[in-house]
Design a protein that fits this description.
40% helix, two-stranded antiparallel ribbon, mainly alpha, 8 helices, 6 strands, Folate_rcpt, disulfide bond, single chain, signal
Length: 241
């Protein structure tokens, strides 16, 4: 019977990998399961064939007065269009991507039960994001926490005055890693490496293969063969006895 246990453990491991490869976060606006949406709005369009966002969410992602999170991008003057483009793509990536499973973590927050942590972003995406925002202004490094929400929308806290972007975020790495409290991890990997996630793309979604790579090389995944070997050894010892 030991071989049956090994088979069941192996099948359970494969099922877990497949689930993490195509899943949606348990968060505020995400669908329960990914699927085709037909048409998604502008910057969210690349995910239309398999998305965790609805068409309505994709449209709201482009709106400065969006109901999604009531977040005010213009908290230190009007954000430049070239900078705002990256935040729109970032929102589409977060809301629509079905391939974030390897980096989804449980959280105890009122507005979501899961978040992403340390998603490895391609160097070009981080650098171009920072380059296009470096002439803008902001007042905080971590945009997840610490805002004044008394008006219903985020405002800079009294003690935090507006400063140049490069004063708050001296480098692309600091911006990408700190702005959403370590949701992203800066890498030196180019898009061509197939080892980093792309915030935006055209054509076929390249992030599925990246997620598959990290799933296959995750610590818990590497532990499965060792578990199978240990179980087989123990079972064989019982048989020999």
């Amino acid at each position: 019977m030991w071989w049956v246990l090994i088979l069941l453990l192996s099948l359970a491991s494969q099922a877990q990998s497949l689930e993490k490869l195509n899943m949606c976060m348990d968060a505020k606006h995400h669908k329960k399961e990914p699927g085709a949406e037909g048409q998604l709005y502008q910057q969210c369009a690349p995910w239309k064939d398999n998305a965790c966002c609805t068409a309505n969410t994709s449209a709201e992602a482009h709106d400065d007065n969006s109901y999604l999170y009531n977040f005010n991008w213009n908290h230190c003057g009007v954000m430049t269009p070239k900078c705002k483009k990256h935040f729109t793509q970032d929102t589409c990536f977060y809301e629509c991507s079905p391939h974030l499973g390897p980096w989804i973590q449980q959280v105890d927050q009122s507005w979501r039960k899961e978040r992403i942590l340390y998603v490895p972003l391609c160097q070009e995406d981080c650098q171009s994001w920072w380059d296009d925002c470096k002439d803008d202004f902001t007042c905080k490094q971590d945009w997840h926490y610490g805002w004044d929400w008394t008006t219903g929308r985020n405002r800079c806290p009294a003690e935090a005055g507006c400063r140049k972007w490069t004063d708050i975020f001296p480098t692309a790495q600091i911006m990408c890693e700190k702005i959403w409290s370590d949701s992203y991890s800066y890498t030196n990997l180019p898009k061509s490496s197939g080892r980093c996630m792309q915030l935006w793309f055209t054509g076929k979604n390249p992030n599925e293969k990246v997620a598959e790579y990290y799933l296959n090389h995750a610590p818990w995944q590497r532990a499965i063969p060792a578990s199978l070997l240990l179980l087989a050894t123990m079972s064989l010892s019982v048989v020999l006895l």
